């Protein structure tokens, strides 16, 4: 038996419809009736397997009457359920809102960590993966796969921490690794006042489209590097706006169009 893509789509759509129906009626009286109808369906299938034609006819009749009863008896509950569904706009809108919340949370945690490290003049090197994968860089460090949090980022770079000398790699919603080694840039025109972290950040940007944040250990100055371009003296608000745009641009075109109004409002 060959399974076609349309069969998979059919199963997924039906699963989603059943799930939404259950969510709509789970807190209403109709939920109990649906449980009863589900049991009737099971007995109906058993009667067919056992060739109990009269029993099957009776069960089918009860099931038909039960569907009418749902509409008549539970009309108020069903109306409220459909009104609730209508007020929820659309599933896609909910997904977009969730994405926006994830972006805002991720941005806030990173910005808070960088601002704290800057105030304390603790050196830091944070690499945010973009389109080009960084699996080879991740392998040079310690795998974490931890949720993004400002406290964790700060602790990773705290002096005398086992992983404070390397780079932290962030991908999607995770801090995937820490203590990673980055390729150093061979650019001889780089200012002498920029240290090894900045040269490593530039080297990483020359080999990928990653977005890199550097905090100077000597001055606390925040620097961002992407596509071999260095921006220094970055404040928290600028970093926040840049990260919001970076994370939004990493999603598909439809998501960018829907969220563009929200981003403009934040900027």
UniProtKB/TrEMBL annotation:
Catalytic reaction(s) noted: 2 ATP = 3',3'-c-di-AMP + 2 diphosphate
Family matches, as Pfam families: CdaA_N (PF19293), DAC (PF02457)
EC number: 2.7.7.85
Segments crossing the lipid bilayer: 6-25, 32-50, 56-74
One BP term from GO: cAMP biosynthetic process
Gene Ontology molecular function: adenylate cyclase activity; ATP binding; diadenylate cyclase activity
The DAC domain, residue ranges: 75-236
Keywords: ATP-binding, Cell membrane, Membrane, Nucleotide-binding, Nucleotidyltransferase, Transferase, Transmembrane, Transmembrane helix
Record bears the keyword Transmembrane helix: yes
UniProt KW rRNA-binding keyword: no
Cited InterPro entries: C-di-AMP_synthase (IPR014046), CdaA (IPR034701), CdaA_N (IPR045585), DisA (IPR050338), DNA_integrity_DisA_N_sf (IPR036888), DNA_integrity_scan_DisA_N (IPR003390)
PANTHER family: DIADENYLATE CYCLASE (PTHR34185)
Subunit note: Probably a homodimer.
Protein family membership: Belongs to the adenylate cyclase family. DacA/CdaA subfamily.
Function: Catalyzes the condensation of 2 ATP molecules into cyclic di-AMP (c-di-AMP), a second messenger used to regulate differing processes in different bacteria.
Name of the protein this chain belongs to: Diadenylate cyclase
Organism: Helcococcus ovis
Gene: dacA
